[in-house]
From TrEMBL:
This is NAD(P)-binding protein. Residues 53-118 form the Alcohol dehydrogenase-like N-terminal domain. One of its GO terms (molecular function) is oxidoreductase activity. GO terms for cellular component: mitochondrion. It holds the Pfam family ADH_N.
Length: 387
């Protein structure tokens, strides 16, 4: 019984409360065929649990829909997770109830909900609430069994000024900026440096352009689609140059050298699985300067060949990253609150879909359709007025 109780707590934290009811999207099917899971998604009302020590219960106001969420939940993108399962990940919400030991949060406070669940006794066991069970036996065990949304997964945010500047739908996208900051800060990106962001035309790629600029770097935005590259450089006219990815190794590397005057300090790489055979990483390795650093945050599951000798002879550092660290969350919130980093419409990203949980299917379709930088799709409880 205790297990069920705690799982319900997490589900309810993800979604929302109304008259002590919690609604959540739940799937009970096994993912054997692409359509199976999607067909089995259902909107359920479950009891609102009492908060236990160390936890917080959050009433969700707005939650972002990942561009690839449809493919995660229909099984096409083979993310591992146990079923039954409550989809969804980060959110913006208000504190609805607190465990007796919580001292820094207060009821009604606007907060960011972090979906990265970490083991208390092993930092390498991490899973993503409502999305991915992680890569270790421990993370799988955690997602399958008892776990809670810990108090530390709730980021206190949103000064009045921030609240006035952004709608809930805009604020809901902030996890995207935390993800890219995770990689950029791990490679120690510094003001004055030049970084290649590739592909820059995706949702996360565009966020990486914005965060790199906010960190004081100059950006070479590399991608396939010229119209989106042009949109990016018109939104960020200072310190952004663009390079179209042609697939020709030598000419792409030469275009990068030219755009950077021969001095690329770092590369931020965040392509989707479909880009496993793309040549852009090799072009970047060819063009980067000696001692360059590369942040790898790909969604690629296949092996990707790298020019080993160049990595060796250039003393290069390749740094992988999944999500971000707890301290990195606080820094991104500060960057947003101070206006150093602009998100949502101020950062060139328009909310093109704001759906209720009842319309989850349309929400997943819209996020898929509007994948790429410049658009975002969110979901919210039906009774929450769109801001
Ligand atoms: N490491 C982490 O913690 C972490 C966290 C979140 C997400 N991710 C990964 O980030 C990836 C990107 O997500 P997103 O929401 O930004 O996706 P998105 O908006 O759909 O953007 C995908 C980007 O990849 C480009 N692309 C697609 N197919 C390509 C190909 N064959 N060759 C080269 N480029 C290609 C697209 O270029 P066009 O504009 O030309 O189509 C676009 O720039 C996800 O797949 C996910 O796995 C990683």
């Amino acid at each position: 019984m205790e297990r069920t109780y705690i799982k319900d707590l997490t589900a309810s934290t993800l979604y929302y409360f109304r008259n002590h009811d919690v609604k959540s999207l739940t799937s009970k099917s096994k993912r054997t065929r692409a359509d199976n899971l999607r067909a089995a998604l259902e909107l359920k009302t479950v009891p609102t649990p009492e908060p236990i020590p160390g936890t917080a219960i959050i009433k969700v106001l707005s939650a972002p829909v990942l561009s690839y969420a449809k493919h995660v939940y229909n099984g096409m993108r083979k993310y591992p997770y146990p079923t039954p399962f409550t989809p969804g990940s980060s959110a913006i919400g208000r504190v609805a109830a607190l465990g007796a030991d919580c001292t820094s949060l207060s009821i009604g406070q606007l907060v960011f909900v972090d979906p990265v669940i970490r083991s208390r006794d092993n930092p390498s066991d991490i899973f993503l609430m409502g999305l991915h069970q992680g890569a270790t036996a421990g993370s799988k065990k955690m997602m399958e069994s008892v776990w809670t949304l810990e108090r530390w997964n709730v980021g206190r945010i949103l000064s009045t000024a921030t609240r006035e500047r952004y709608t809930e739908a805009h604020l809901a996208t902030m996890a995207q900026f935390m993800v890219v900051y995770g990689g950029l800060s791990d490679i120690g990106l510094r003001a004055g440096e030049t970084i290649v962001v590739v592909p820059a035309t995706g949702g996360f790629g565009g966020a990486a352009v914005a965060v790199s600029l906010a960190m004081g770097a100059s950006v070479i935005a590399m991608g396939r689609t010229e119209t989106t590259l042009a949109k990016l450089s018109s939104k960020f006219p200072e310190r952004v140059k663009t390079v179209k990815m042609t697939g020709d190794l030598e000419s792409d590397a030469e275009a990068l050298r030219k755009a950077s005057n021969g001095c690329i300090d770092a590369v931020y790489d965040i392509p989707p699985p479909m880009a496993a055979k793309s040549t852009h990483l090799k072009s970047c390795i060819m063009a980067i300067k000696h001692s360059g650093r590369i942040s790898l945050m790909d969604g690629i599951y296949d092996d990707v060949p790298i020019p080993y000798h160049l990595v060796v002879h250039k003393d290069m550092k390749l740094q992988g990253k999944w999500m971000y660290g707890k301290e990195q969350i606080k820094i991104v919130i500060k960057m947003i609150e101070t206006g150093v980093l602009k998100i949502g419409n101020l950062g060139g990203v328009e909310t093109v879909g704001d759906f209720t949980f009842e319309n989850w299917e349309e929400a997943l379709d819209a996020a898929d359709e509007h994948a790429g930088w410049g658009s975002s799709v969110v979901m919210r409880p039906a009774e929450m007025a769109s801001s």
